[in-house]
Amino acid sequence: MERNFEGGGRAAGIGEILRDARISGRGWRKAAEGELRFIPVETKTIVRGDGTTKTLERVRHRGAAVIVPITDDGKVVMLRQYRPAIGAWIYELPAGTIEKGERPARCAARELEEETGFAASEVKELFSSFSSPGWSTEIHHFVLARGLRKGEQNLDEDERLKVEEFTVGELRKMIADGRIADGKTIQGIYYYLQNVAEK
What we know:
This protein has 199 residues and is of the alpha+beta class. 22% of the residues lie in helices and 34% in strands. The chain has two domains: 31 residues, no CATH class; 137 residues, Alpha-Beta Complex (Nucleoside Triphosphate Pyrophosphohydrolase), CATH 3.90.79.10.
């Protein structure tokens, strides 16, 4: 049974998560065929040069917007979010899956307001990258958000997260000491630091 994670918790670094074996298979089971509601898996059979065949698998994903929200005083808005897959609270940039027909910038504005309560007067697409090209078609579209004005969160029923703000100096230290261990978040922060904040 998953432990109760209501009310927030301290964010764990990757070293602590690995030491505690939180990502072990304990308590998890392989999903039966037809049970994967949110992750469409596709297969494709290829013929090798020697005539043998191999079946490939991939996850088809619509892609996601990853938001780098910057306050008027230069702080970065972050989420402290519980992730059941690793059994821990971690720090992340706000992000969300792009809906059918939706542009990354529009998705970013929507997800930012839903997750943090902030509405942005300026959203700008920065760059895109594949998240895990070895097995998924998912693309992360990184979007800068500025001109933030505080409103109200509109979280999904199963979302457990807290909104926090950090200076760029604090974020550098948190990445260096492992307190920020989410790949897309590290990528987005460093892009911002090298290509936006220092210009």
